[in-house]
Design a protein that fits this description.
Organism: Pseudoalteromonas rubra
GO molecular function, one term: metal ion binding
CATH class of the largest domain: Alpha Beta
CATH architecture of the largest domain: 3-Layer(aba) Sandwich
Keywords: Hydrolase, Metal-binding, Metalloprotease, Protease, Zinc
Mean pLDDT: 85
Number of helices: 10
Number of domains: 2
Family: Belongs to the UPF0758 family.
Protein name: MPN domain-containing protein
């Protein structure tokens, strides 16, 4: 059945206006974004088909463009729009975290990093630059790609820390594999950076690994 042929109060837009967005299913919310269906499927059915094909709504949001464009009824334009929605949502959530949190505990950092790094298909290594009250001055991606001991140059990290007048740093990177356990390379680069920063009296509070919904803290593991 076409959406316009459905009773008005059963249509996703009308239901959202009357009951709020939380009352809608994943497929109904996605249908509002898609706006139209394809031959043989209305927008809700197309939305449910996309979710089923990808495995979940989260997986659909995280698939690369080449894979997304293979699904029936969507293309590059929809991929770009969906990524823009994702980025707006991420920035919206980060505003609250940055405003309210002091990064003095692994949990506060974990909440922030999961928003930043969850769902990435490539590995990135980043630093959080903190003031002496553990408030975030800036975050910066230092390296993208497979991490090894030679990937990040301590001199450049020290220069950035001095530039931002940071009192402490927290390092973080993601494991797209979903396994949060630190590798030997993770340990080596952490120790290398910690020694370099100690020479200019800047502390390294932690190094966290984000893997899916998991977040491992070097500090909690006793690795710092």
């Amino acid at each position: 059945m076409q959406l316009m042929a459905m009773p008005k109060m059963q249509r996703p837009r009308e239901r959202l206006l009357s009951n709020g967005a939380s009352a809608l299913s994943d497929a109904e919310l996605l249908a509002i974004f898609l706006r139209t269906g394809v031959a043989g499927m209305n927008a809700i059915e197309l939305a449910q088909s996309l979710i089923d094909q990808s495995g979940s709504l989260q997986e659909l949001m995280n698939v690369p463009c080449s894979e997304f464009c293979q699904y029936k009824g969507v293309g590059e334009a929809k991929y770009v729009q969906l990524q823009a929605v994702m980025e707006l949502s991420r920035r919206y959530l980060l505003e609250d975290v940055v405003r309210d949190a002091q990064f003095g505990s692994p949990q506060a950092v974990s909440d922030y990093l999961k928003i930043q790094l969850k769902g990435l298909h490539h590995e990135v290594f980043m630093a959080l630059f903190l003031d002496n009250q553990n408030r975030l001055i800036r975050d910066e991606v230092l390296f993208s790609g497979t991490i090894n001991a030679a990937s990040v140059y301590p001199r450049e990290v020290v220069k950035a820390a001095l530039k931002y007048n940071a009192a402490a740093l927290i390092f973080a990177h993601n494991h797209p594999s979903g396994v949060a356990e630190p590798s030997e390379a993770d340990r080596l680069i952490t120790n290398k950076l910690q020694r370099a920063l100690a020479l200019v009296d800047i502390q390294v509070h932690d190094h966290l690994i984000v893997a899916g919904s998991c977040c491992l803290s070097f500090a909690q593991r006793g690795l710092l």
